[in-house]
């Protein structure tokens, strides 16, 4: 059963459990998709029922970001932990490398996915990056054809949220893939174009601050985090009044 935070259900899993579930789905090849909503997307879902349906239709909904984890705690139904999409993918790659499995990288600016692919294959010997495509295409058709010719075990869709979630939901029945995951700016990180926060920052849950310092233009988007927490407190008060 999913843990609800502002009406959006999150799977309550440790990182190892999330990776195990992801591998199971991939081996079954049912072509489902994984999403990692942060508070910004959770807020967008409040105003957009179609987006909420897309998120809830995912095979795995992982809490990426400490905001969602705090929100769940405030509501008295704590999540086991934060499951950052980038860490989840690393967990998949480790096992996929041992099993010689393939991944297709879709998204980011031209050249980034290729560079990310080279880096991933040298970091995870045995992993097969079977194809790449940038995220600035007009028609889905030719991209879907390329992916289906390769039938990868995993398709990373890195078009930014919520574009990637809409894309995965719209195309899931046309795609011949094991599993898909929407991972935002991860290809930029794998390519070395953007640095993830050092581990100590990640451990202290201030990865968002590191990102803000790197990309100050994200400030507007990040104001959704305090708004999200205020709404969570409102929901908590509402639940108390109803005696839940
Ligand atoms: N992007 C893309 N196609 C688009 C818009 C964006 O491939 O039409 C890529 C962009 O180049 C970047 C990623 O999507 O690599 C978005 O990264 P961001 O960190 O903003 O992701 P979010 O935080 O929205 O998940």
Strand arrangement, largest sheet? Answer: 4-3-8-7-5-6
Order of helices and strands: EEHEHHEHHEHEHEHEHHHHH
Largest sheet: 6 strands, parallel
Helix content: 40-55%
Mean pLDDT score: 92
**Sequence stretches where pLDDT stays below 50 over 5 or more residues:** none
| Morphology call | globular
Number of helices: 13
Bound ligands: uridine-5'-diphosphate
Number of domains: 1
Distance between the termini: 18 Å
Hey, roughly how much beta strand do the residues contain? 5-15%
Gyration radius, in Å: 18 Å
Based on helices, strands and strand pairing, what is the structural class? Answer: alpha/beta
Report the strand count.
8
Describe this structure in words.
By secondary structure, the chain is α/β, with parallel strands linked by helices. The protein has one domain (2-241). Helices cover 52% and strands 14% of the residues. It has helices at 15-28, 39-47, 49-56, 66-74, 85-99, 112-123, 140-150, 163-171, 186-190, 199-203, 207-214, 219-222, 224-241, and strands spanning 3-5, 8-10, 32-35, 60-61, 102-107, 128-133, 154-158, 179-182. It has a six-stranded parallel β-sheet, sandwiched between helices. Strands 1-2 form a two-stranded antiparallel ribbon. Strand 7 (154-158), helix 8 (163-171) and strand 8 form a beta-alpha-beta unit. The longest helix has 18 residues, at 224-241. The mean pLDDT is 92.
């Amino acid at each position: 059963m999913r843990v609800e935070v502002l009406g959006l259900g999150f799977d309550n899993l440790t990182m190892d459990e999330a990776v195990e579930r992801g591998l199971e789905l991939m081996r079954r090849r049912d072509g489902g998709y994984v999403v990692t909503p942060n508070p910004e997307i959770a807020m967008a879902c409040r105003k957009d029922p179609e987006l909420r349906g897309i998120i809830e239709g995912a095979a795995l909904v992982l809490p990426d970001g400490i905001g969602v984890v705090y929100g769940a705690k405030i509501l008295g139904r704590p999540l086991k932990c934060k499951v950052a999409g980038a860490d989840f993918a690393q967990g998949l790659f480790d096992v996929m490398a041992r099993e010689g499995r393939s991944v297709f990288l879709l998204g980011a600016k031209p050249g980034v996915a290729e560079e990310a692919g080279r880096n991933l294959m040298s970091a995870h010997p045995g992993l097969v990056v079977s194809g790449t495509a940038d995220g600035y295409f007009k028609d889905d058709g030719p991209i879907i054809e390329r992916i289906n010719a390769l039938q990868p075990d995993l398709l990373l869709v890195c078009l930014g949220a919520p574009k990637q979630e809409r894309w995965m939901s719209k195309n899931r029945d046309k795609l011949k893939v094991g599993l898909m995951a929407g991972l935002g700016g991860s290809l930029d990180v794998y390519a070395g174009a953007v640095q993830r926060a050092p581990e100590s920052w990640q451990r202290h849950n201030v990865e968002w601050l590191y990102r803000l310092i790197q990309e100050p233009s994200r400030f507007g988007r990040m104001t959704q985090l305090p708004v999200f927490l205020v709404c969570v407190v409102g929901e908590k008060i509402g639940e108390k009044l109803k005696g839940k």
